[in-house]
Design goal:
Elements lengths: L1 H39 L6 H9 L5 H21 L10 H5 L2 H31 L2 H5 L1 E6 L6 E3 L1 H4 L1 H23 L19
Antiparallel strand pairs: 1-2
């Protein structure tokens, strides 16, 4: 049951990350087109389209939108999509120890990460959402589509809070699994199923 829920949530996160990446790519192409279309308008054989291309000016908001989406993509990906085994790690010394010591190291690492995230959670949240400067300072070229209001700079840093919460949940679950199963799996991002046989 839990494995199915985690798998579906991961799929949803992957779809969101893919949609953000597609939006970044489309925005990037739009930026290139508006920048170079006037210079290439003379190649267009249709006069009306050539005149329209000549009238285009480079769009200023694309760079800020791409930056905003890129930050969100990184933190959503690191929170819900990227698994531990997807990172480049140096585990030569870790692998040289016995499974019991690897359990100790895993629990120590999880404890340190959870403690650090919890310790920094309130100051980080207050710095982003409680700061008047973060609320007053706006991204000058980006506006909310419906209201037309400029987007506050705090929404650029908002996914950091989500990442911290996801880290606490992920490594809390990892600690629970190590304690409950008594072993450290090679892929600690997958929920272990019931063993089908005893140890050899």
């Amino acid at each position: 049951m839990l494995s199915t829920v985690v798998s579906r949530l991961t799929r949803i996160a992957e779809l969101i990350a893919a949609a953000i990446l597609a939006a970044i790519f489309i925005t990037f192409l739009l930026q290139i087109f508006t920048r170079y279309a006037p210079k290439l308008a003379w190649l267009m054989p249709i006069p009306s389209i050539a005149d329209w291309m000549t009238s285009l000016v480079p769009i200023g908001w694309t760079v800020n939108l791409i930056s905003l989406l890129w930050v969100w993509l990184i933190f959503i990906g690191c929170s819900f999509v990227v698994r531990d085994k997807d990172h480049v790690i140096f585990d030569v010394f870790y692998s040289a120890f016995s499974s019991q010591w690897r359990r100790y190291f895993t629990l120590a690492t999880c404890t340190i990460l959870i403690a650090a995230m919890i310790y920094a959670a309130l100051p980080t949240y207050d710095a982003i959402f409680g700061s008047m400067l973060m609320n007053l300072k706006k991204i000058q070229t980006l506006r909310v589509p419906i209201t037309g209001d400029k987007i506050a700079i705090k929404w650029l840093f908002a996914p950091i809070v989500m990442f911290m919460a996801a880290t606490v949940i992920r490594y809390g679950f990892r600690s629970y699994r190590v304690l409950s199963t008594g072993r450290v799996d090679d892929d600690l991002d997958t929920i272990p199923t019931q063993d089908k046989g005893g140890d050899a």
